Amino acid sequence: MGNDKKFSLKRIERLRVRLADYSRILGPAAGAALCSPRRGQKPVIFFNASTRINDLSLNAGFSLVTSWAVRLAGVPVVHFVCSAGMSRCVLGADPDRPDAAPPCKICVRQSRFQTVGARARFFSYHRDEALAAALDGLSVEQLSAFECRLPEPLSTVHCTLDTEHLPLGALVLPSMRWRLRLHNLQDDEATRFLFREYLLSAWNVAREFSRLLDETDPQAVVLFNGQFFPEAVARFLARRRGVRVVTHEVGLQPFSAYFTEGEATAYPIAIPETFELDEAQNARLDAYLENRFQGRFSMAGIQFWPEMKGLGEAFLKKAAGFRQVVPVFTNVIFDTSQPHSNVVFPDMFAWLDLALEAAKAHPETLFVLRAHPDEARPGKAARESVAGWVAKTGAAKLPNIVFVAADEFLSSYELIQRSKFVMIYNSTIGLEASIMGAPVLCAGKARFTQYPAVFFPESVPAYREMLEQFLRAAEVKPRPEHLRNARRFLYYQLFRTSLPFGEFLEPSGQRGYVRVRPGALSRLRPDRSPAVRAVLEGILHGGDFLLEEA
To answer: Do 380 and 252 share a structural domain?
Structure first.
């Protein structure tokens, strides 16, 4: 395949070492335990094609270890595995060269190593020429709205997909935005080409996964993320058949996973209204926040803050010339482009346009525009970025706007302490600002907006009106429930929903990747691990995936 040349012999050697690791971890006795399901048990399907290519990512590790736990519980597992089953995939497509084939060989080799001794259904790619003809000549807007009706006229391979529509365009669009690092896609041939290939690949996944559902009649399907198109298609088809679907993502704690029957990226959490933090729980949360406020935290194995700087004399002198300071915290394009995020504004940049209008109308206010530190991460740098928006609009030329770039490690928390109120789109910093006692005006649906922890107007006019009120008011105070709900939500997110996998996975030495810890299999039992107990109860019995309180 075209991109395979990018992968060195060292990476191939790592795969060989990984195979030896799995053989050592599984062993003859453990392998026998994994291969002896109880009779009468329907299988659980695992699918995670969008987690990695050449090594074991954190999410791929969660999937692998969880599948072992399910098998050890006596329940059969079927891995649905891509074997060059897509002409272009989410991780393997090259945004600069969409015509280049993905690195399938190295990926399939890794997949075979991870499913050693397991029941796996590998699927290959079969291009549907009828669908390809239907897509030819469509614009990006038309491709985004494209729907199939099955089985005719586009199905060339019969399977028991019903005649309801399959919204391929809507299922593929988030992957296009994520892969291209753009929210607003350009209608050029390169974009249309990749979109068509994604749609054809999604259709192939739909046909193959439908066959697997027919053959296995599973009790549940466990998917990574559920937003990228391979897993999104599987989720759509399984749920339409009434099969329970569990999605997972990284939790807020290091080496922790979040599992849910909802949308993992939206992070639905059911917190009892009667729940209040006691003295020990408050102390536990405060200890975490102390480290967080100093930048000592990581997400998915990535440390965003190598250092954290104070505001400095120059900034404080400038701020002294204004009546009030309002920080504007942005987010990264692959978080703001999730379908559930943009319920008020069409996208984050429309919100920034409104913020710019407000800055021009209120010269007495210093707006500090903060780019997310992940916006410029090597290999994942945004192509439609806040820095690009600033350059295009000339926002930083206004005397009352200070732009803090992604690689400037200025303390957001010191900014919050000096602010009149805080503006966010949907970044977690808004939750932390509420905990610090600051009023927070939120523009996009966030994990924490399911509870009243911030001000969250329901429309653009309502947002504009509230922003104007806040800017003109002598003082802005948060509502009493904001602090309470922010602390309750963060506590649940940290200590109840983030299932610790650190006893099973450890850093591999390559940034962002992990390996299975020696002896992990012996600990993968409900009586030995609260995380295993929670995940098995959730997958097999419809539990809530919550850790028990220590």
So the answer is: no
